[in-house]
Design a protein that fits this description.
Blueprint (H helix, E strand, L loop, with lengths): L8 H4 L19 H4 L5 H27 L1 E2 L2 E2 L13 H9 L6 E5 L3 H14 L2 H10 L4 H7 L6 H17 L23 E5 L5 H14 L6 E6 L6 H10 L3 H4 L11 E7 L2 E2 L2 E2 L13 H5 L7 E4 L3 H16 L5 E6 L17 H9 L2 H11 L5 H22 L16 H4 L25 H6 L22 H13 L6 E4 L15 H4 L5 E3 L4 H14 L3 E5 L9 H7 L3 H4 L8 E7 L12 H5 L5 E3 L4 H13 L4 E6 L27 E4 L4 E6 L3 H15 L3 E5 L2 E3 L4 H10 L2 E8 L4 H13 L8 E5 L17 H12 L13 H9 L3
Parallel strand pairs: 3-4, 3-5, 5-6, 6-10, 9-10, 11-12, 11-13, 13-14, 14-16, 15-16, 18-19, 18-21, 21-22
Antiparallel strand pairs: 1-2, 7-8, 15-20, 17-19
This protein binds thiamine diphosphate (TPP) and magnesium ion (MG).
Length: 822
């Protein structure tokens, strides 16, 4: 808690009652007549048109999925299609008031939202701008397809472009908005303000908050709309996102123009079902979803249920809620009531709902009802509406024929370029700053108290006389990370960092101590205890163009951010077709001393996931250089730091840790000690155990070990390791991760394949035991110790003369332990 806010027991212990205000439910009741001042006839007809286009698009997909045919065109689409037939009014209403630079994010069921927002953006953009967007998107390849033989104006052309880009994406074609790598559930198009849609239910719940933070912190115009389903209210990321987005500090601690709530609308597209589960009456307890807002903050999130079957009710709500956001009183929760007439997916037999129910909603079909109200108000006639429907059918037929034509709409050619998808995972950029401008800081860098104190520290572990430097005078590993981080804060105005205890506490392990003095709240802040949202918001911030560092206090808490780390962070660069960059560094502190749930090294889990760079330095020099590289890059990085060694000084780099800026290439292992008899490859803090082993091998057995510090798990250059093995013929690998399924095993296997002929013995892995980690007092029985490594060498690689083993590394024991699942 910041010291500037005193918590007075006299106040907080006072008795009182919390009073809730009223949450409006379906209160919109204007007739078309009454809306005539707000809309031209053309606007009202355009709303109808957009709903019809979406209905036809989705109906076409439904027919393709269920009958493999639409108006005589045959096609088999094996992939997903979560259709939103019935939900058109809510999508068009949502998009109507939005500007091009208002962002939407969505769910697996977002075709309608993509088209609605796209049509709204097309309507709002000038011809020149529209044309230049289309021309520049992937060098105009999609534009060329729709342009051919087209007669009409640029706005009409853009509608073709939108439908084609979306459909080609759904059909996994290279001309799709995301090169066919996003597909139906993830398609998006950022130039129209359409940001990623998410196949993980609730996945956008925290990512959207990061997008809103990006807008707020970087003073970008526009708002963010998070379109998610009603059932996602049961998802952790949504709840965490809500908590993150309603923190008091935006109003109490953020200053100047940054003060005030986030420009964000959680728009629950409430179709009353999550697959077959009824959220009202079965799987949730809120009854009316908007009720949830009441408990979140005193503003009750300005929650409201609106009739998503009436586009004008939705437009009215968005108009009013945008006003609230512009007064910095957000975020807002909308419960947009709608109904999915189509099944959850085309294979859904709707066994969970009655025919009567579907028919009742069909009778109130928003397109028919709205169309009739336009006719009754004398705005149009049935002939014109019929014409709109007819044109939509022709248009969708035309777009379908283009999208399935393998000549004009091929897929990415993986025969010609088999490694292309692999290359698309990383952008491998190098840039000082993600935004131009002057970074906002509170003092010059060299006046920062920690920076000043570091100037007095010894940057090598021994002083000039060769005596070990005391901890108090030593430049430590945590200082190396700090120097890289603070340097970037003074270089990149977009950089913001958050996590638990990031501010006044100085980071849980004092890595950030001193940052608070230099940075305003909006660049460094404490988050709720929401590990999912800590990472999810960083992803949203990064995908919009900002650089961020998020912190997970203990590696063990990565489980709480599992979806964000495994499913979101690694994927959006590739799934966007390389439209998006992800300059996000997640600092993960690997614990010590606190037992089973605070001491695990899960670097192997993360390294298993394609699309993440994984760094685990063990020295101050490497920590600073690798953090500099991570922060200079444009890729997602998981940066592990071991609590066991935060206070070590630099023992390896001659001259110690340089004061100035330098980078260490990500992916290059480092030879920490040269030798010719045996190679020891280490990841993370076991480096120091290995150094002890190397000294024992030298002194007691006359063997000279080569010690290689991996430094990075992904990417990884095997060359220096292979060169070493060529020389030594032997290798042992070690780290603090439990050995079963660990990254060490992956490395051992790769080394076996690459250097089999050079090996005199199999690579041997010495990881931690496959146990639940015991208390600190018993840790030495769990984590690799020098005598384990010596025993393993003796048993499997090279008998050490006179060595007496203390641990059982025999094959028979390995078999027994595996039989027992240990
Ligand atoms: C985390 C996760 N759990 C389960 C699923 C499978 N699933 C896909 S959609 C869906 C229902 C989602 O309901 P809701 O959020 O209301 O959206 P709707 O489908 O109604 O649009 C489920 C359970 C998933 N994709 N992600
Ligand atoms: Mg639903």
């Amino acid at each position: 808690m910041p010291k500037i806010q005193n918590i007075d027991p006299k106040i907080v212990r006072k008795p009182l009652f919390i009073e809730f205000g009223k949450i409006p439910v379906n209160q919109y009741n204007k007739s078309i007549e009454e809306e005539k001042d707000n809309f031209t006839d053309k606007d009202l007809i355009r709303i109808y048109h957009d709903m019809v286009v979406i209905r036809e698009f989705e109906s076409m997909l439904n027919l393709i999925k269920t009958t493999n045919e639409y108006h005589g065109i045959a096609y088999n689409h094996p992939g997903p299609a979560h259709l939103s037939i019935g939900q058109e009014a809510s999508a068009v209403g949502m998009a109507y008031t939005l500007d091009v630079n208002d962002f939407i994010l969505g769910s697996h069921r977002s075709h309608g939202e993509i088209l609605a927002k796209g049509l709204s953006a097309i309507h709002k953009l000038e011809e020149d701008m529209l044309f230049s967007i289309m021309k520049n998107y992937f060098n105009g390849t999609a534009l060329q397809v729709v342009e051919k033989g087209f007669h009409g104006d640029i706005h009409e052309l853009a509608v073709h472009f939108l439908l084609y880009g979306a459909l080609a994406e759904i059909f996994a074609r290279e001309n799709g908005f995301n090169k066919g790598l996003g597909g139906s559930m993830h398609a998006f198009f950022t130039p129209f303000g359409i940001y990623p849609n998410n196949a993980i239910v609730g996945g956008s719940g925290d990512i959207s908050v990061g997008a809103a933070l990006y807008k707020k912190i970087n003073r970008k115009p526009g708002i963010v709309v998070c379109n998610i389903g009603d059932a996602s209210m049961g998802c952790g990321p949504v709840w965490e996102g809500i908590c993150f987005s309603t923190m008091d500090q935006y109003k109490t601690l953020w200053e100047g123009e940054y003060k005030g709530g986030l420009p964000l609308i959680f728009n629950f597209m409430n179709n009353l079902y999550g697959m077959g589960g009824q959220t009202m009456g079965e799987t949730m307890g809120f009854g009316i979803l908007a009720r949830v807002g009441a408990g979140v903050n005193p503003e009750m999130m300005h929650a409201e249920r609106i009739d998503g079957y009436n586009p004008l009710a939705v437009i009215d709500a968005f108009f009013r809620k945008k006003q609230i956001l512009s007064e910095k009183k957000g975020p807002v929760l909308l419960d947009t009531l709608t109904y999915r007439i189509s099944g959850h997916s085309p294979s859904d037999a709707s066994s969970y709902r009655s025919k009567e129910e579907i028919e009742a909603w069909q009778q109130e079909d928003s397109i028919i009802t709205y169309g009739n109200s336009l006719i009754q108000a004398g705005i149009t006639d049935s002939g014109q509406l019929e014409e709109i429907r007819h044109e939509a059918t022709e248009l969708i037929t035309h777009i379908l024929s283009l999208s399935i034509d393998d000549e004009v709409s091929p897929r990415i050619d993986l025969i010609k370029d088999p490694d292309r998808l692999g290359r698309m995972m990383f952008s491998n950029g190098s840039t000082d700053r993600m935004e131009d401008g002057v970074p906002e800081v509170l003092m010059p860098l060299d006046e920062n108290p920690r920076v000043r104190s570091l100037k007095t520290k010894e940057r090598f572990f021994k002083d000039k006389e060769g005596k070990p430097v005391s901890k108090a005078r030593l430049f430590q590993l945590r200082d190396g990370i700090f120097e890289a981080v603070i340097d970037r804060f003074y270089k990149d105005p977009s950089l913001a960092a958050w996590g638990e205890e990031n501010r006044d506490w100085g980071g849980a392990f004092a890595v950030y101590r001193g940052l608070t003095e230099s940075l305003p709240y909006h660049r460094l802040f404490n988050s709720p205890i929401s590990e999912g949202a800590i990472v999810g918001t960083a992803i949203g911030y990064g995908m919009c163009g900002g650089r961020t560092i998020a912190e997970i206090m203990y590696c063990d808490f990565l489980g709480r951010s599992g979806d964000e780390v495994f499913n979101q962070l690694p994927k959006w660069q590739a799934m966007s077709g390389n439209i998006i960059k992800m300059p996000v560094v997640i600092r993960v502190s690997v614990g010590s001393k606190y037992g089973a749930q605070h001491s695990q090294d899960w670097s192997s889990l993360v390294a298993h996931i394609p699309g993440l760079k994984v760094i685990f330095p063990a020295t101050p020099y490497d920590s600073k250089g690798l953090m500099n590289s991570a922060l200079q890059g444009t890729d997602p990085v998981i940066f592990f730091e071991s609590q066991r060694i935060y206070d070590v000084g630099e023992m390896f780099h001659p001259g110690g840790v340089p004061e100035g800026y330098y980078e260490i290439p990500i992916g290059e292992p480092d030879i920490k000690r040269s030798g010719e008899d045996i190679t020891i490859l280490t990841i993370g803090a076991t480096l120091y155990q290995v150094i002890t082993v190397a000294e024992i091998l030298q002194q007691d057995y006359g063997l000279n070990a080569e010690v290689i510090d991996a430094r990075t798990l992904v990417p990884f250059n095997y060359e220096p390791v292979i060169q070493s093995v060529k020389k030594t013929g032997r290798i042992v690998l070690t780290s603090d991760a439990s050995s079963r399924g660990s990254f060490l095993k992956e490395m051992a296997q790769t080394i076996t394949e690459l250097a089999f002929d050079d090996l005199d013995a199999p690579p041997v892995v010495v990881g931690s035991r496959n146990w639940i980690i015991p208390a600190y007092e018993m840790e030495k029985f769990f984590f690799p110790q020098p005598d384990w490594i010596l025993d393993a060498i003796h048993e499997h690689i090279l008998p050490l003369k006179g060595h007496k083993t203390r641990n059982d590394f025999t094959g028979s024991r390995a078999i027994k332990l595996n039989q027992e699942g240990v």
